[in-house]
Amino acid sequence: MTENTETDDDGREAQNSSNDAESGTSTAVTRRGALTALGAAGLLGYLGTGRASAEVLSGVDNTAPQATQVIAGGRDNTIPENATMAAITGGRHNEASGEYSFVGGGGGEEGDRGNRATALHTAVCGGAANRAGSLTKLLPGAFVGGGTGNEATDAWTVIAGGTSNEAGDPAAAVLGGMGNEAGNTATVGAGRENSAFGGGSVVGGGLQNEAVGKASTVSGGFLNETSALGATVGGGGSTDVLVSVGGVLGTMFLEPPSDSTEGNRAFDEFATVAGGADNVAGSDNEDETSAPYSTVGGGRANVAENDCATVPGGRSNVAAGEYSLAAGRRAAAAHRGAFVWSDGEDAAFGSTGAHQFLVDAAGGVGLGHEAPEADVLDVRGAAAGSARDPASSIAYVENESQDASADVLALKVNTEMPGPDNDFVTFLNGRDDAIGTIEGNGSGGVTYTGAGGDFGEYFPKADPDATFAPGEVVGLRGGEITRTTADADTAFVVTDRPIVLGNNAEDTEDRVAVAMLGQVPVDVAETVDAGDLLVATDAADGRARVADGTPAAPVVGRALTSASEDEESVDAFVNASVDGAPNEDASAARSDADRIAALESTLDRKDERIDDLEAETERKEARIDELESRLAAVEQAVEALPTGGTMQAD
Description:
The chain is 11% helix and 25% strand. With 650 residues, the protein is an alpha/beta fold. The protein folds into four domains: 52-193; 195-240 and 258-364, Serralysin-like metalloprotease, C-terminal (Alkaline Protease, subunit P, domain 1); 412-450, no CATH class; 454-574, Virus Head Decoration Protein, Chain: A. A hairpin with a 7-residue loop joins strand 49 and strand 50 (544-546). Keywords: Coiled coil. Residues 1-28, 278-298 are annotated as: Disordered.
């Protein structure tokens, strides 16, 4: 047995007695020489020199009973007899009781402040009241770097430092902090009162966080929890205030957590809360697979509680449907595939069915525009191209259903009988001036308004290379438009501003639009008075003239304005029809006028007869009044006669 007999606190040389069991010789060793040797070769190297006796190199009341045991200095340090190859470099009240165990130093004046390395290959580098190794199990490889009151008690556990930390299951690790615990293959980086108990789980730091699920992670924050496989909480935690929000959406009541003392929680497999406060990813039930891959990015009091549901942030949002997303404030995506975006107003806004995309934005919604009007969807872009190419439009709406009843677009004005002040559609020019509308008519229908007033239709040209100008008079012959009108079936006027244009085609180069009904400008060849009947000229010059006599030319229309010799056009009313007015000859038109005049004459005669009958009736009523008056006089005379008297005849 080797016992220290003297120490030198100021670093001067001291003598130690070493009783070698075999030789009985004494060896003088200086502290500086021992420490230099240990520093140069390392303590294990020193033990490996093959010395046959234990060594207490310095200090007071140190005990090392066996060969190959070393205590380099300090006080009240102990290596038990069975701790082969154990070593203590210094400190006080330290113990290296495991084979090949090591205590670097530290400890304290009281016995319970010492460090202990209690199992095979365990080590405590320094600090106080630390333990590496179990008191009851021979579990190897535990390590404590320093700090105070740390315990690494299972195989291959590590506590780097800090205070009151525990690593109590195989391969657990606590790097530092205070009051942290790590379980099987789990790690706590630092912080305070954090615990990682799931296999392979990690708590990076923070305060009172828990990683319970296997391979789960809490990076930091306060009062956060992961309880399922692969779940993650990035940070954040509790606001330490009560929050209670939510609302009734249809028949579903959704309410984010109100117990703020629980921080962020990820309950289900591979669920994630990246940060914020009082957020929940997953469903708080026994089935850890009921809401996997749910995610809350941050914010406050948000819940993602179904498979692949997401809340990117904001406050008091709930994503309760599979693959749903809720963002903003008090948005509730309660159905599968629903996306709900809510503004910052403190009012519930939620889905009412699956696969909805809902946006609540009191300030307006802008697509391609940063300043929309309030409560307006404002879509802007710079698309250009062919007039009929969808790529040239900034909005494209398609109903992909092949059902015969499929519709595309519905527009609603929330009044029972929309009137002219209710525009379903308004068309604007580059100056934002209204150039046309589709508005209510006050009678349960709609009215189309615009600068154009006629109904037009495309017809093919007889000569595809011919060009026509608006207002030209043309003829229809054999289903094609020609400038020659003498033998045409019908006369038309070329139009460029119809409010409705039919018979449209992809390519209109070989077609021309003509007015079928309405008011259009008409080129004229002579003076015209309003009300004149216009017919096509015989010169094929694209102009009209006033009908006279019985012309053979087809009728163009009725002039609504006048034109002098210097003016070249008038506004005219046209009304194209087949085998009827107004594209009949002038005599047919006059014949209709004669018939109308005859009917009017007949009506006049009947009116006169009615007047005669009314006069006769008045005379008869006067005669009746006279007779009634005479009858009354007779009755009075009869009543005046004396009783029994007789009336003398006149």
